[in-house]
Amino acid sequence: MITIDNQEVFTETHELLDPAHTGLVVIDPQNDFCAEGGIFARAGKDMSTMPAAIEACARLVDSARAAGVTVFFIQNQKLANGRSTSPAWLRFLTVRNGITEEPEVCLAGSWGAEFVPELQPTGTDIVVQKWRSSAFVGTNLDMLLRVHRIRTVVCCGFITQGCVESTARDAGFYDYYPVVVEDAVANHDPALHEASLLVQRSRYDVLPAAEIRAIWDASAPQFARKA
C-alpha cells in the first residue's frame, strides 16, 4: 500500500482481494450466451470455450462463499415487443452480433435468460438484473456494492469484450478497484477475447483464477480445496 494525495492506495494483490472488502460479480452466465440451444449457439457461434470458463466461475464462486466474499449474479434481461430496447440497441443485438432471428436474447422469463445449471445463486448471493452491457447502467449494483462496503470488484463471466469489459470499466469509473479473472471469462471469438484482455491489462488488474482462489482459501482454512 502506498499513500498518494493523502489517500491509501492498494498496491499488493492480497490487499486488493481481501475478502473483507471484495465482491465477486458473475456476469451473465445465462443459457442464451453459454449453452447449446441458446440463441448464440443457434446463430452458429463457437461454444467451445464456454464449459471451461463456466467451471472456472463455479470454483471461484465456491471459494468466494467460503471466504465470506459477497457474490453478485448479473442477469441480462430484455422485455418482449421492444419494451426495453431502442433502435440503437436493437442494431447492436442483431447486426453487430450476427443474429438474424428475432432479437429475443435473454428474454425475461425465458429459458435463455436463466442461469446455466452450474452457476446458480443461493440465498447468500445477490441477483442484479441489467438491461445493457454494463452491470452498472440502469441497475442498483453500485448501491448494493456500497451497502456491503465493497472496494474491489472481481469480474468473471461472459462475454469478454462485451459485458465483462463494460462492467470492469464502469467499476473503475465508479471508484472501485476492478479485477478481471482471465481464465474465468470467455466469448465466441478467440481473437476478440485476447484483444479485450490485452486492453484490459493496460488499465487494471487481470489475474488467473488460481491466484485469486489461493488468497480467498487462505482466509477460510476450514475450506479444504483440492488443487
TrEMBL record:
The Isochorismatase-like domain, residue ranges: 23-197
Tell whether Hydrolase is among the UniProt keywords: yes
Full protein name: Cysteine hydrolase family protein
Taxonomic superkingdom: Bacteria
Q: Which InterPro entries match?
A: Isochorismatase-like_dom, Isochorismatase-like_hydrls
Record PANTHER family: ISOCHORISMATASE-LIKE DOMAIN-CONTAINING PROTEIN, PEROXYUREIDOACRYLATE/UREIDOACRYLATE AMIDOHYDROLASE-RELATED
Under Gene Ontology molecular function, one entry of this record is: hydrolase activity
Keyword annotations from UniProtKB, A to Z: Hydrolase
Q: Which organism is it from?
A: Falsiroseomonas tokyonensis
Under Pfam families, the record lists:
Isochorismatase (PF00857)
